[in-house]
Every structure is written in structure tokens, then in C-alpha cells.
């Protein structure tokens, strides 16, 4: 299926939920299959955008961190807090 081809998708009731059924050719073209997690967004024009959920590697997330940044105020308070009960350290 080409990028300019429109396909009609029908919303169907599944118990208390509503789901969309995608034709096999669309799934094959997009490299998707049952069980794949997607993220959904909408535009101001009312369009729905679906994309495979991105899976991050730990190294990618750490690379985004500023190791020289000041610690958040709540963490500073947490580190200075006295035990309030029977906590074991």
C-alpha cells in the first residue's frame, strides 16, 4: 500500500472497550503485529497519529542527564530527614 492510499478502519466494540481493526496489508507494510505497543496523539485538526512506542536504552537516558545539575530540593530534604518510626539503616 502506498503512502497516498486511504483505507477505511471501522471501530468495533470489544466488551467495554472499543478497538480498531487494521488490515493485514497495512500491518505488514508498517512492520506491526498484535501485541506491539503504540502511542497515540491527536492534532488540532482532529487527526489521529499512531506510532510504535519508543524503547530507550539506559545509555541513551543517562546521556540526557546533567550530572552537574543541583539536586532537587525534595531529595535534599529526604537525605536530611530523621527516622520517623522503626526504620532500620
CATH fold assignment of the domain at 11-52: Pemi-like Protein 1, Chain: D
Beginning-to-end CA distance, first to last residue: 62 Å
The helix content, as a percent range, equals 10-25%
- Note the run of SSEs as H and E: EEHEEHH
Uncertain regions: pLDDT < 50 for 5+ in a row? none
Instruction: Provide the gyration radius in Å.
Output: 23 Å
Q: Overall pLDDT, averaged? A: 89
Tell me the structural class: alpha+beta
Q: Main sheet?
A: 2 strands, antiparallel
Q: Give the class-level CATH name of the domain at 11-52.
A: Mainly Beta
Strand line-up of the largest beta sheet: 1-2
The count of DSSP E runs of length 2 or more, i.e. the number of strands, is: 4
- Count of individual helical segments: 3
Content of β-strand? 15-25%
**Tertiary shape:** elongated
The CATH architecture of the domain at 11-52: Ribbon
Structure characteristics:
single chain, alpha+beta, Pemi-like Protein 1, Chain: D, two-stranded antiparallel sheet, two-stranded antiparallel ribbon, 3 helices
What does this structure look like?
This protein is α+β, with helices and mostly antiparallel strands and 89 residues long. The chain has a domain of 42 residues: Pemi-like Protein 1, Chain: D (Ribbon), CATH 2.10.260. It has 3 helices and 4 strands; from the N terminus they run ββαββαα. It has a two-stranded antiparallel sheet with strand order 1-2. It has a two-stranded antiparallel sheet with strand order 3-4. The relative contact order is 0.08.
Please outline what is shown here.
By secondary structure, this protein is of the alpha+beta class. It contains 3 helices and 4 strands; from the N terminus they run E-E-H-E-E-H-H.
Amino acid at each position: 500500500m502506498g503512502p497516498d492510499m486511504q483505507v477505511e478502519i471501522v471501530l468495533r466494540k470489544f466488551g467495554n472497550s472499543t478497538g480498531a481493526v487494521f488490515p493485514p496489508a497495512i500491518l505488514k507494510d508498517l512492520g506491526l503485529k498484535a501485541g506491539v505497543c503504540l502511542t497515540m496523539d491527536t492534532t488540532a485538526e482532529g487527526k489521529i497519529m499512531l506510532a510504535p512506542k519508543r524503547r530507550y536504552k539506559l545509555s541513551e537516558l543517562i546521556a540526557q542527564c546533567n550530572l552537574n545539575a543541583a539536586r532537587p530540593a525534595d531529595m535534599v530534604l529526604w537525605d536530611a530527614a530523621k527516622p520517623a518510626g522503626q526504620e532500620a539503616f
